[in-house]
Each structure stands twice: as structure tokens, then as C-alpha cells.
Amino acid sequence: MKSRALKTIYNIFNLKNQLILNKILLKSVYMKLDKTISFILLILLVVAIAATVYITVNPKSGEKFTEFYILGAGDKAGNYPTNLTLGKTGNVTIGIVNHEQSKTNYNLVIKFNGTIIDNRNVTLAKNETQQIPFTFTTTQSGNNQKLEFLLFKLPDNSQAYRSLILYVNVS
Questions:
Q1: Please, are residues 77 and 67 in contact by the beta-carbon 8 Å criterion?
Q2: What are the two backbone dihedrals, phi and then psi, of residue 35, each rounded to the nearest 5 degrees?
Q3: Would you list the domain boundaries of the chain?
């Protein structure tokens, strides 16, 4: 009986030692796993910071375009001088906004019934806006006379880059 009790105590003692050893080994495995996960997270953080810095320093250039518009009385997109009396003047404001991402040269040509009545060069810096007051005088009567505003982006002076048309009735 004594030997059986000793065997049981011995087995309990061995079991307790094995549990302690397993606990130590498990703790060691968890520490290694914790270090590995921490290292991976650190690398991901460095990559995220590097990507953010790169995107901030080298932003993707936006769409390149030019705004081209005319405004009527009171600088409104309306109230255009579309009904005039022969010999009277009409006033509009021509707006050009450069979103071409660089300094850009333009040629503005204005035609009335196919005849050039104004021609001027305009140079705008990146994101610069220019509003040009323009006055025209009617020289013949008739309905739906064509007032054309043609904007050429230089050096191409053969095809209008942007165009606007205002039809004027002259009595």
C-alpha cells in the first residue's frame, strides 16, 4: 500500500512538473509569437507611413482643362444682350480659368456673323482666372445673328479649344 501511495505521489509530482514545463514552453511560444506579430505590425506601419509620404509629395495631377464662359449684365450667367436695336452696344464678360496644371497661352477670337471683330492673346498662370469685359456694336438688323467666342490653346491656332455662341436679335 505504501508503494502504491508513493507511486501516486510520484505520478502527481511528475504531472505537476510536466504542467509547469508545458506552461513555461507555452509562455515561450507565446512570447515568440508576440514578437513576430509586433515585428509584422511595425513593418506594416512603416510601409503605410512611406506610402502616405509618397502620395503627399507626388500627388496625382488632376484633370487638365480650361473653363471658358460668358456672363451677362450683373456678371450673371444670364441677362445676355440678345435683343438689341441697330447701332446699340451689348456688353458681356468673358471668363477664362486655367486648370491646365501649367502656364498656358490662349488666343481669343470673337466673330460677329462670321467677321472677326476682336482677336487677342491671353496668358494665364496655373489656376489663374481672367474676366474680360467686352462691348460689341450691332451693324445690321436681323434675327439670330451669331456672336462667336473662340478660344484657341496655343500653339494650335487651327482648331478652337473651346467655343461659345450667343445669338443676337437686332431690330
A1: no
A2: -65, -40
A3: 1-60, 65-170
Series of mean pLDDT values for 10-residue runs along the chain (171 residues):
63 67 67 81 91 80 87 88 90 94 94 93 94 91 94 91 94 90
Q: What is the 3-state secondary structure (H, E, C) of 58-115?
A: CCCCCCCEEEEEEECHHHCCCCCCCEECCCCEEEEEEEEEEECCCCEEEEEEEEECCE
Note whether 86 and 140 are within 8 A (CB).
Answer: yes
Global pTM exceeds 0.90: no
Please compute Rg for the chain using Cα positions.
40
The CATH class that applies to domain 65-170 reads mainly beta
Encode burial over 112-134: b for 16+ CB neighbours within 10 A, e otherwise.
Answer: beeeeeeeeebebeeeeeeebeb
